[in-house]
Amino acid sequence: MYDLDKHRLDVREALTKRGLGSYMNDTKWRKLIDAIARLPFPPPYQRKDVLQLEPEPKTFDCDVDYVGDWSEGIHPFFSIEWIRIRPRYLRHAAQLLPKVVIDCEANLEFALQSLRQPYEKSNGSILIYGYR
Length: 132
Hints:
Radius of gyration: 16 Å
Distance between the termini: 30 Å
Number of strands: 6
Mean pLDDT: 93
Helix content: 25-40%
Order of helices and strands: HHEEEEHEE
């Protein structure tokens, strides 16, 4: 059984041990999710948790053919060290045609700027820190 209180305590201990400070809180994460919901599609993301050595998914260096699960897959907020958003995905057009790149980078950047959410751009992705 998952014990949320124990998980929260383990995260706090890891943050103290690693000397990481908070960049986000639940309110900021909820505002980000609300902004994501207004985009043309929910962009795929890679998530690195404080207690994990590797991000999930492990590789995220090229465009993918799926969208992100922003409603359930992002919880709990307090354990997100960082999240890397790829603001595009490859949509299947037809059997014999190549996949089409669907992009919402400009929309996402506008939303982040409207929220005054700090972010970094790198290699076609947008990085948001929960802790740093």
